[in-house]
Amino acid sequence: MMKQIQEQTALNPLHSHWRLADDRNVLYLSPTGETDAEKTVELSPEQAGRIREITAITSSLLITLLIEKQVTAVHLVGRKINNREWAGSLATWPDTPAVAPTQAQELSFAEQIVSEASSVIAILDSRGKICRFNRLCEEYTGLKERDVIGQSVFKLFMSRREAVASRHYIENFFRNGNAYEIERWIKTRKGQRLFLFRNKFVHNGSGKNEIFLICAGTDITEERRTQERLRILANTDTVTGLPNRNAIHEFINHAIASAGESQVGIVYLDLDNFKKINDAYGHMFGDQLLQAVSLALLSCLEEDQLLARLGGDEFIVLAAHTSQAALEAVASRILTRLRQPFRIGLIEVYTGCAIGISLAPRHGQDSESLIRTADTAMYNAKEGGRGQFCVFSPEMNQRVFDYHWLDTNLRKALENDQLLIHYQPKITWRGEVRSLEALVRWQSPERGLIPPLEFISYAEESGLIVPLGRWVILDVVRQIAKWRDKGINLRVAVNFSARQLADQTLFTALKQALYDLNFEYCPIDVELTESCLIENDTLALSVIQQFSQLGAQIHLDDFGTGYSSLSQLARFPIDAVKLDQAFVRDIHKQPLSQSLVRAIVAVAQALNLQVIAEGVENAKEDAFLTKNGVNERQGFLFAKPMPAVSFERWYKRYQTKKMR
């Protein structure tokens, strides 16, 4: 009979849930867990006390109750649901006493996992009331679970604005049942901490079968701080502290995207002589100079303009909601400031710049195109001379195309023997031909004969001038050897650039070629521009001395048009100065040019230097130069530059004519 009563009671769905208040020792039983109870069971003070010892952690308890006048072993599972109530479910199966310990052990294990988890875990009902609050939650907040059960999570941990957003998320969660993740700053005992919450469904283990929101959060504050530090490092130039290439691309694209009808512009600048300064004084000095330049540039900007270092000696100024006039004003201020010297320690250096300007949307729709057009404008400014700025125009793209065509095809020209040497004779005041000047030409299968003015500057920029110069000097030596074998003994002048002087292998190659071709003397004259002497005077002096000792003569080309001083004529072992065509042209009509040439000749004679004039095109020019002490002349009046075979024929005719 006892067994039947127990089974009937246990299986009766009307009595599957219980509830206990803190003010009466009465257990309320109901089939649904609602507040209206169908039955009540009196508890002893001891029994009520045992139940009230249950915390917010779901627990189990085995007690004996008098239900429907029958003594029944009941297994209670439940927890404290708020500050004044406990609730849960009950089981009255015949084997309850036997299985209860196992269930209690399993429940305790599950609860321990929740309580001791390495994540903060809070369980909320549909109204945002706290149902569970694990140990890690307590450690972070300093609040105990028993004190927060039943309280609103919005009021405890969120601002009003955060609460509105969270209510929206939670309402959607209970409406749609979609799990979601969210990052949220939480005020803790350690200050504001950022948590990543992963939110999912959980079914209530006590009371009616409701769906709750389980919020499992991981403290990602340090992870985010590390990510932010890495982001800053990835977007910051380590030398100057300015935004770097990666950052400025993002800033430009963002500015363009949010520009609306206004213009976004950049000022792209490239420092002059930075590499030479870096090589001369070291990288540490170079870094200090970059820092000083950065501060100088910042002083030239408006408040809403941004400075970034693109890399090397290149900087970019970004201006949103701007105009061409505003960018030109910035460029002018920068040029003015960089004309002043920078003092690093005891050393004072000058570093000007060339500037290119471009604006979106006219010159580019994104950072790549805008920087590219500004770079093109900057190179155009460089070609116009130092200390200038230039605003991009579509015509400048032709220069970029030409540069890439020349860079690609000049390499092929070196590999495929498309280069050739033309020779122009120099005539002494007695009318003799003793020397020539070697001038390189490029016979392109695509464009025909290309003069040096159209490709030498590109060779300088790309570094191709080094292999090109080596090819020229070796080809010239071989040609001189052929003429020697034919009884034609002439010297040939070859042009050198500053970059070629830095190529230490050039001298070695020439010396070896002279040995291989059985020369007992050096028939090569080296023509240097005045800029070669000032860009690295120590290196220039060393190389010039090497060539002089080998037997080469040193000619200073374009004399009077560059940066030379009389002290350089005395310091360097120079054998001749070469008057630029600017002095020679129409000299018989130009009193000022006549005075300058007389003065130059007088100085050269005093220093025992030869004087050579180039660009002589008519007899009147030649007559004045010869009369006033110029030693050699060259120009179209006598002969145009010509291939070696053509020169031989010209030379024979000239010699025959001279002998008559």
From TrEMBL:
EC number: 3.1.4.52
UniProt cross-references to SUPFAM superfamilies, sorted A to Z: EAL domain-like (SSF141868), Nucleotide cyclase (SSF55073), PYP-like sensor domain (PAS domain) (SSF55785)
PROSITE patterns named in the record: EAL, GGDEF, PAS
Pfam family, one: EAL
GGDEF domain mapped to chain residues: 262-394
Catalytic activities: 3',3'-c-di-GMP + H2O = 5'-phosphoguanylyl(3'->5')guanosine + H(+)
A GO molecular-function annotation: cyclic-guanylate-specific phosphodiesterase activity
UniProt-listed Gene3D superfamilies: 3.30.70.270, EAL domain (3.20.20.450), PAS domain (3.30.450.20)
Signal peptide start and end residues: none
Segments forming domain EAL: 403-655
The entry's keywords: c-di-GMP, Hydrolase
Broad enzyme group: hydrolase
Subunit structure: Interacts with FlhD in the FlhC(2)FlhD(4) heterohexamer, inhibiting its ability to activate transcription.
Name this polypeptide is given: Anti-FlhC(2)FlhD(4) factor YdiV
Taxonomic lineage of the native organism: Bacteria, Pseudomonadati, Pseudomonadota, Gammaproteobacteria, Enterobacterales
